[in-house]
What we know:
Blueprint: H1 22-33, H2 43-46, E1 59-60, H3 62-71, H4 78-81, E2 85-87, E3 104-110, E4 115-121, E5 125-131, E6 135-139, E7 142-146, E8 151-154, E9 160-164, E10 171-177, H5 179-184, E11 190-192, H6 206-211, E12 232-233, H7 235-246, E13 257-260, E14 275-281, E15 290-292, E16 296-302, E17 305-309, E18 312-316, E19 321-324, E20 330-334, E21 341-347, H8 349-354, E22 360-362
Antiparallel strand pairs: 1-19, 2-3, 3-10, 4-9, 4-11, 5-8, 5-10, 6-7, 6-9, 8-12, 13-14, 14-21, 15-22, 16-19, 16-21, 17-18, 17-20
Amino acid sequence: xxxxxxxxxxxxxxxxxxxxxxxxxxxxxxxxxxxxxxxxxxxxxxxxxxxxxxxxxxxxxxxxxxxxxxxxxxxxxxxxxxxxxxxxxxxxxxxxxxxxxxxxxxxxxxxxxxxxxxxxxxxxxxxxxxxxxxxxxxxxxxxxxxxxxxxxxxxxxxxxxxxxxxxxxxxxxxxxxxxxxxxxxxxxxxxxxxxxxxxxxxxxxxxxxxxxxxxxxxxxxxxxxxxxxxxxxxxxxxxxxxxxxxxxxxxxxxxxxxxxxxxxxxxxxxxxxxxxxxxxxxxxxxxxxxxxxxxxxxxxxxxxxxxxxxxxxxxxxxxxxxxxxxxxxxxxxxxxxxxxxxxxxxxxxxxxxxxxxxxxxxxxxxxxxxxxx
Length: 373
């Protein structure tokens, strides 16, 4: 039995516009028998005029998810689950378990004294701390203590494990990985450490203490790996840098006062496939709308407000998470007249830039602001 065939026609010069005929339909059936097809039937679909993201702008509210995330502690152990994580599902990306585009994200919870076994994989990851005290991560023998709004890298191929100190408190952090992208490349490997744990071979927080000093790199520091040696980026110096920068700039009309986290050895992105930034919206600030290629996942580090994404309003407060799909119009509003708001953003911008695919466009109507649908 012949399978139904597609025919995406457009009555535009230079685009495929071939009418079906009995002879062509028979021809398509013949091609199908040999595992082939006529490009003109699908060309307009696979080469759209502009990006057509299947991701849906989505907001995950902290107040909705915190309870269910904590409940998982009573239902499964880290040993059984591997990682006790509640992942974020984008309605348009269910098939690949992505939060947006080719980016996976979830909320991981651990109690004091618990540990997740050491492992490594082809996917690169970051952990952004949302709640609790005493969390730490060990990456290739380097132990990093973690506090709220800190984030830590677990780059491609590195041994890593997570735990909460016995004297700590229940901790929740956001995991973000390029798992869907690596799977799409058909290049994902996963390996469990033979000892299920790794020895700590360096002073605690040594990489941040070595590489995290403003304007300074270690004399003789030699780092040639494709990811940042500064495995941990702390909130306090980040917020201080934003405040200092805000004192001498008008900022971006589209992003407010925004700074990118970088690899201090190269001044490039923290990892090859995932980039990170923190932006400050000053009291009452309303950015203008723009859109760009790439997928963006925001976590509210401080304050409250709302964002307008493709004409729809999404109200957010601290620790909420929301996404902006590729080529979606978006603008941000700080809801406070007296306090600033800060948004942490994890994106695939390094991939867009490396492949020459980054493109940006300002919203040209209504003074740069979208009408709300």
